[in-house]
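help with this.
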Amino acid sequence: MVAAPPLARLLDALPAGAAPVRWFRAPGRVNLIGDHTDYNDGLALPLAIDRECVVAARPRTDGRVRARSLDADGTVDVAADGGDEPAAVTPGWGRYAAGVARALADRGRSAIGADLVLSSTVPAGSGLSSSAALTVGLALATCAVADFELAPLDLARACQAAEHLATGVPTGLLDQLASLGGIDGAALLVDFRELSLTPVVLPPACTVLVVHSGVARTLEGSAYADRRAACLAAAERLGLASLRDASAAAVADDPRARHVVTENGLVVDCVAALGRGDAPAAGDALVASHASLRDDYEVSTPELDRLVDLLVANGAFGARLTGAGFGGCVVALVPAGGEAEVATRTVERYRAATGLEPDAFPVRATAGAGELAGVGT
């Protein structure tokens, strides 16, 4: 069980004020299958996880948003009207707070200030959407102190825009939708053309295990934008609105586009397998997905490849990198009750082979982001 963020410490760090404190949580996510499909109108199967960002919030009267993280250095002070340039804010995590302020101001939020204190149990640089948990938590709190409300899809888009402003990386909408739309005990089949979410209950025969490779991932400076541009170019070359409409034959000679078509099919296969309780078949889909990400999309690393191989060799139904790649975590489906043994054997052998320090932990599907009720002020 992951320790919850320290609520008492959050409260102690919040500046005094007359208004009551409100509390918000936003989970990270693990993507079971379906990566680099979101910006191609495709399919994915994420689940919100029991690691989360918690934010304590109280309004201010001076038009400033002051945010403090208990996990990182520095306090961020930005204009509530979005006037500060997000990319110029320091420390680095504060760019997300500035991005949220601007994205919400662009959507009509009034320039009411806020004191925010936050802490997160989503490991940074892991591919588990620590940045989405941060932006969604900040956005929920910033909206609430101004009595401003957005529909869930509009809020997800605002958080996506905030991340674009903060990092300059043209990320898709997967992470924000998963954090906001999570369902306890179920993954979410996301159709990015329809922007629909369909619950997929995880069978009791399997547990979701995450293993951090010990290599931090960052999308800034990675080839993420190049991969996205290659997909857009492929769709244009084929005369299609997106690669969602491409046939396998049409992309047979284009490995980037081929991955997208293959991956969408594997999502369908995995959902069908989970629906009939066939954990081995679902695991096979994960392994095939990793091969496509490794060979066609070229976003894996030797460390991620080794972890996938070790997990399967040590009893997992299947495993794959999760998130954009370039480091971070792998996700595995393992037999329920066997996760500790699979994790221990994998970690020991990976550590001996690489000298890196991995971190393995089971996760469960949890409810999406929202306000915490019943927390004292």
